[in-house]
Structures are given as C-alpha cells and as structure tokens.
Amino acid sequence: MNENTIAPPSGVKLWLLAFRAYSFPASIIPAIFGAVLAVLFNPGLKFNYIAFSLTVVGSVLAQILSNVVNDIYDFKKGIDKEDKSIGIPHGGSMVISMGLVSSDQMKKAAIIVAILGVFIGIYLYTIAGTMVLFLTLFAILSALLYTASPAALKYKALGDIQVFVSFGMIITLGSYIIQAPLHEFSWMPVLLSIPLGLLIVAILHSNNIRDINFDGKFGVKTLPIIIGEPASRKVYYFLLLGAYAAVLVFALMKFLPYTSLLCFVTLPIALKLCKMVDHFPTSVQERYDYGAKHIMMTAQLNMQFGLTMIIGILAYVLFMR
Asked: If residue 292 lies in a helix (H) or strand (E), which one and from where to where?
C-alpha cells in the first residue's frame, strides 16, 4: 500500500482492513467443518441453523479480537511502525501505524468484539451446555494472550502452537459439540481438525518468514528466527503437504469418506505456494510486498482446501450414505 498515491479507506472498508477480513476463512472454515462432522457422525441429526450461524459469527469475532489485540501490542512494541532508517515498512493491518485508526479506537473495538463474543457464548451455552462456555472463555483468553502481556505467546515462538490449537482444534470441536445430539466432547473432531490446523499455521508461518529480518530487532522470537529461513521453508512444505497427507490417511482409515479427497483438486495451488516460498526477495520493500501476496494466497488455499473437503463430505452424506 502506498499511502502517498492511494486514498485511504474509510467506514466499513477501513474496519474490514483493521480486522484483516482476508483471513476470516481461517475461523469460518473450521466452524463449518465441525458442524459437518456432527452431521457425518450422527445420521438423522436435527441441524440447528441458528446455533450454526452464531457459531460461525462467534468464531470470526474470536479471530477479530486476536487480530485487533495483535495490532495494538505490535504497534506498542514498535513492530508495525514504519522505520525507513532500518528498512521496516508499515506492518500488521497498517491502520494504526498509518494513523487511520488510533490505538484507543482499536481498544474500544476489542472490548465491543469481546462483549459480543461473550453474549454469543452464553446463548450457545443454553443450547449445548458447560463445555461450550469453557471453549468460549478459552477462545477469548487465547485471543488476548497471543500478543498481550504478560503471556505474549507470539513473541516467544509459541504462536504457531496457539493458532493450531485455537483455530484448528477448538473451533472445530466447539462447532461439533454444539450440533451433536448429546453435546459431549469427542476426540474425533479434534483429530480430524489437523489438516485445517496445519494450513492455518501455514498462514502465520508465511508471515513470519516474510518478517524474519526485522522481527528479531524488537526482541521477538518466531520459529523462522530460531531455525533460520532455509529450514523454515521446509516447515512450510510440511504444513501444506501434511494437510493433504492427513486427509488421505483419514480417508484410508475410513475416519472420513473417500469423497473428502476432493480437496486434492487444490494441490496444484499448494505446490505453487511451495515454489514461491523459495523465492522471497532480499530487498525489504519487495520482500514485504511479495510476502503479503504469499500470505494472502496461503489464506485463500486454506479456504479452497477446506471448502472442497467439506463439499466432498456433504456429497457423501447427501447422496452416498
């Protein structure tokens, strides 16, 4: 984004930028997937569409909260501020660093989002019981502890694990419990969330590869900083290709129907992204722009992979069971 030649967004567009709407599939897809698993494993299930809609909204609110708090604390730490002297461009959603939204406004937005999330959690608790309330509280705490002090998991190379658990396992599990007849915990949705969890972590990992040269200047530890860029590329390969391998294993073990393998139509995109990660530019601005494209394409792959896998499962449920 060139702030000198492009008119800054305002209104809804501004807040969509602040909330990083491009990344919403990372929370929407697991919510849909968990509900679809409930249908798959419980023939004759009476699907609750209101609860499903609120589950999706609540999942997105948890992600917005995480993104907003991340922007607030990264800016406070200096990570997202442009510093031409050491070659650091604007970071995060850029709305704070470019002066489009103040930190106080972002804090107010975080409070409103958290309150809305709590109300949705309480309503879903009346439908599905205590487990959903615990998962709601976990989601809110997870969103705060990602970058908020004193935990600041992102700064301690624990962000990948936190994202995998929160946006992969917890959202899938919560959505499953809300729809399942007895609203009880099950290990199956936790296990089957692994492919989506890997792809969600890949979005963060792509971001951290892009920022490897200046995150460390602020005392931030990420996995790429610890293991280096060459090894980080291999981790990215594992995250993407591991998602496809996991679905294949689950299909062979009959945990998922073979139609779930429809997600393999997106494999060429994954292979293209694996090639792209090998060619991050060294020039700061070029690297940032190239990295931003790679991050968004990884987020799009997460959506494409998830939707095709879900469509495959629904095709089995509706026409082949």
From this structure: helix 284-319
> In the chain, what's the furthest Cα-to-Cα distance?
63
Give the DSSP letter of residue 18: H
Distance CA(201)–CA(193), nearest Å, equals 12
Distance spanning both ends of the chain, measured CA to CA: 49
DSSP output for 193-261 = THHHHHHHHHHHHHHHHHTHHHHGGGT-B-HHHHH-HHHHHHHHHHHHHHHHHHHHHHHHTTSS-GGGG
How far, in Å, CA of 92 to CA of 70, rounded? 8
**Cis-peptide into 150, omega within 30 deg:** yes
In one-letter notation, the amino acid at residue 216 is G
Q: Which residues pair with 156 in a beta bridge?
A: 221
Residue pair 128/103 in contact by the 8 Å Cβ criterion: no
What gap in Å lies between CA 266 and CA 165, rounded to an integer?
24
List, as one string, the DSSP characters of 100-157: SS-HHHHHHHHHHHHHHHHHHHHHHHHHH-HHHHHHHHHHHHHHHHTTSTTT-GGGBT
Please enumerate in sequence order all residues whose Cβ is within 8 A of that of 175, keeping only pairs 6 or more positions apart, or say none: 30, 31, 32, 33, 34, 35, 38, 52, 55, 59, 189
Q: Are 171 and 35 in contact (CB under 8 A)?
A: no
C-alpha–C-alpha distance, residues 185 and 89, integer Å: 45
Q: Which pLDDT tens digit goes with each residue over 187-237?
A: 999 999 999 999 999 999 999 999 898 777 777 889 999 999 999 999 999
Q: Which two tokens stand for residue 204?
A: 């963060």
CA-to-CA dists, residue 223 to 71, 189, 279, 280, angstroms: 20, 27, 19, 17
Per-residue pLDDT tens for 4-26? 456 778 789 999 989 999 889 99
- 25 preceded by a cis bond (ω within 30 of 0): no
